[in-house]
Amino acid sequence: MGSDDVVVVADGRDGEARKIVVAVDESEESMYALSWCLNNIVQGQPRNCKDALVLLHAKRPTVVYPGLDSSDRRDNEMACWILQKADKLCAEHDVKVEKKVEEGDPGDVICEMVNVLKADLLIMGSHGYSQLTRSILRSVSHHCVQNASCPVLVVKMPK
Q1: Domain region containing 47
Q2: 3-state secondary structure the chain
Q3: What is the pLDDT of residues 63-119, one digit of tens each?
Q4: In the prediction, which pLDDT does 149 show?
Q5: Can you give the C-alpha Rg of the chain in angstroms?
Q6: How many domains does the chain contain in total?
Q7: Is residue 30, in this structure, part of any structural domain at all?
Q8: Within a domain: 91
Q9: What pLDDT, in 10s, does the model give residues 128-152?
Q10: Has residue 54 been placed in a domain?
Q11: pTM, full prediction
């Protein structure tokens, strides 16, 4: 093979497009996982490849008290900022994406949406917490690895 040849790994579905979901939040690790996906999975695919990339942000449920909607408005602004940041990164790679924001416990929301979207792959970042910290804070990536209906790729940010 020449240096310009592209090797495409068959996904076992006779050339059908894959649906790749990338979970994004405000963390640096999340954006690194998206960048890694763009550089290592999406980049280098043939132009006729129709893989679909979905950016998913799980917004924690907000407790809204009568007369206090500023918390909900702030959460919506944060979700919008996160998706704009992720979308800009995708645009730099000339990749079109679908964006989704769902509200609820992040681990549960991500697993549910992966199932609803019939995703072929879930990609998410890792904060690199210790086992003790993970047990206290409940690791979303660990929950998804255990419960998602598709393969999960957890991308660890280099130190």
Answers
A1: 19-156
A2: CCCCCCCCCCCCCCCCCCEEEEECCCCHHHHHHHHHHHHHHHCCCCCCCCCEEEEEEEECCCCCECCECHHHHHHHHHHHHHHHHHHHHHHHCCCCEEEEEEECCHHHHHHHHHHHCCCCEEEEEECCCCHHHHHHHCCHHHHHHHHCCCCEEEEECCC
A3: 666 555 567 778 888 899 999 999 999 988 888 899 999 999 999 999 999 999 999
A4: 95
A5: 17
A6: 1
A7: yes
A8: yes
A9: 666 655 555 568 888 899 999 999 9
A10: yes
A11: 0.79
Question: CB–CB of 15/68 below 8 Å?
Answer: no
Q: Is residue 120 part of a domain?
A: yes
Strand partners, 68: 65
The least confident of 13-17, 35-39, 89-93, 100-104 is: 13-17
Tokens 């093979």 correspond to 1
CATH of the domain at 44: 3.40.50.620
Please report, as a single letter, which amino acid is at residue 9.
V
Of the pLDDT bands very low, low, confident and very high (cuts 50, 70, 90), residue 55 is very high
